[in-house]
Amino acid sequence: MTLTFRSFLQRLAGCLAATALAASAAFAGFPDKPLKLVVPFAPGGGTDAIARALGVGMSHALGQPVVIDNKPGAGTIIGSDAVAKSSPDGYSVLVSTFAHAVNPSLMAKLPYDTQKGFAPVVLLARGPNVLVVRADSPYKSVADVVAAARSNPGKLTYASQGNGTSAHLAGEMFTNLAKVQMTHIPYKGAGPALTDLLGGQVDMMFATAAAASSQVAGGKLRAMGVTTPRRAPALKDVPAIAETVPGYAVESWYGLFVPAATPSEVIGKLNAAAKKASESAEFRKLLEPEGLTVSAGTPAELGEFVASETARWSRIVKENNVKVD
User: Would you state the pLDDT for residue 26?
Assistant: First the structure.
């Protein structure tokens, strides 16, 4: 090795060390500007409400404003794609849901790689969906819905916040296991879907508890069944759909992801801020009465959970020949 080449290597090592120190200093200052929580649904639904409550707590923890950026459409793909292709600096955070784990099985091609395009931050909460109808609906129970659907194949309609969402797959699983036909009507969020349900444009919805709880409490909607295998502790008076349709089980969840290659130091700060926000009385007041369980843990726990959900739903989608509309 010549002296000149050795000198070059020493200079290169020095440059790399300086770059690493500069990057570390930059991460230490994170965040130094407002952050975005990207919600892949329209305003007014359960995910939007959770994101707004979380944003307030994270803003206090991080010392910077946290802005909600609604990007609805294509069963969460539009909002997810925007985050996947954003700068991996921690300033764009995806509020992910059930659809994040299901879309790879439902869609022939996605504009991003779900497994490689994102880094997990935190699993926020898990809980049931709720089968709801208008308060004046003739359907009083899950058994009533099954009977009506069998008598009038394809006539009954159910809304969802988009293709591939928990409300959509909850309906698909219901029709498959109950051996009935119903028509799926997708929207760009739970807010518009619930508006049409209340207005009589659709018959029912397998809504997230977060989206439907206020309308149920206000007497405008009737809750007929939860999608978890057993009754939810906070909704103990609402039977599980599985009591009428054996084997039925669907769970909704909420988590945070950032683009792949986001520095671990940044992910750590986001995780800590989200945990702190989820521990606030305001956040728990929003979630727990709706049957949602706060479960803020490590980034690895979210990664493992989503990998498990992706594998489970891939099998279910294939076995039940589930198709998007």
Answer: 54
